[in-house]
Amino acid sequence: ASRFGLRCVTMGYTASEREHLKKVLPNPTPFTLSDLKKAVPPHCFERSYIRSFGHVVVDLTMAFIVFRLSYLISHPVVPIPLRYVLWPIYYWVQGCIFTGLWVLGHECGHGGFSDSRIVNDITGMILHTALLVPYYSWKHTHGVHHQNCCSMERDEVFVPMTEKDIDVDNPLRFTAPVRFFHVLIFLLLGWPLYLFVHATGQNYPTWTNHFNPYSACFGRKQRVGVVVTDLVLAFVLYGLYKLCLLYGTLWMFNVYFAPYMIVNCWLVVVTQLQHSDPSVPHYRGKEFTWLRGALATVDRDFGWVLNHMFHHIQDTHVVHHLFSYMPFYHAVEATKYVAPILGKYRLTDFKTPVASAVWSCYRDCIYVPSKGDIVFYRTPHNDYGKNRMQKRE
Fold first, then answer.
1. Using an 8 Å Cβ cutoff, are 242 and 234 in contact?
2. Taking the model in full, what pTM does it have?
3. Angle, vertex CA 306, rays to CA 301 and CA 312, nearest 5
4. Residue % of the chain over a pLDDT of 90
5. What residue segments make up the domains of the chain, in order of their start?
6. What is the secondary structure of 111-151 as a DSSP string?
7. 315-354, pLDDT tens digit by residue?
8. Contact, 350 vs 335, CB < 8 A?
């Protein structure tokens, strides 16, 4: 491993891990963040109120049109059996549109939406709170994640378990039915579990969540913002409650909560696939550097339609981690300029279908070794990572 500039030895690594080490950014690095930034045209870092709010208007317009079309589903001329087909279609389409709005709120949290912090926070608060996201609380922990991506000690989300955390000798733990159950639970509850109990996050000694200003993931400076976020969320929840009283619980479920659950599913899928793969390294101690962590994320292709609906958050995620303040509408162009410099150090998977990638993720990415400064996901019974990597290449 020394010829790759890694301060580690290959003893103890599996065959696939030794192959993955070839794609680990050396330390010291052959290029710097400054080198990468110089390769990107300056206009890619320029924010535009017209373009940013234009995306908001387009997404809101689509959401309103789809919402109005949903009234046709309950029209007396529509047979009841057909409604059981049309409503799930509405849930899916509206959920994808809502996910795009969630991404725009996420951009506000990074400061990539506009040059004004006030505009960013007000817009982000409105967009995220409308989707029951604690904007400021999540903005803080997400910022910590970007500063410490793939650090075993300091990252705030998708921190891998070690073999000490799970029963690796349990023959049922890794069977297909159990894996399917895990996938189903995380798709339905993964996002709320992260917000309420910090699931997949850093293991703090006390109960940690995104609503308690005294949670371990917040410092004294964040407490006021967390309280404000909670109050705004309470206001939105009260408004939803009044709408339930006015139009009925079934109506609210159909037009809002079902699409909201689709958003939660997409958040888990998108973020899980961005940060979980057998080729993604995790670092301990001095082996972690900010640039190494920023490049330990995967660009994936969700298809032309979803790539655009999600504002390219999944196929330009490497650039997003390098320049999180860059406006999202320049990320595709910027990727073209940094990709040649990154070379093999840019992790991508543009071939695996989304559903297959999710299934493989819960098969291949089980735990990491409890020892070692550079570690990769392992699974107890089979070395799936090597075969999957060879197929991609």
1. no
2. 0.92
3. 65
4. 83
5. 15-391
6. T-S-S-HHHHHHHHHHHHHHTT--HHHHHHHHHHHHHSTTB
7. 999 999 999 999 999 999 999 999 999 999 999 999 999 9
8. no
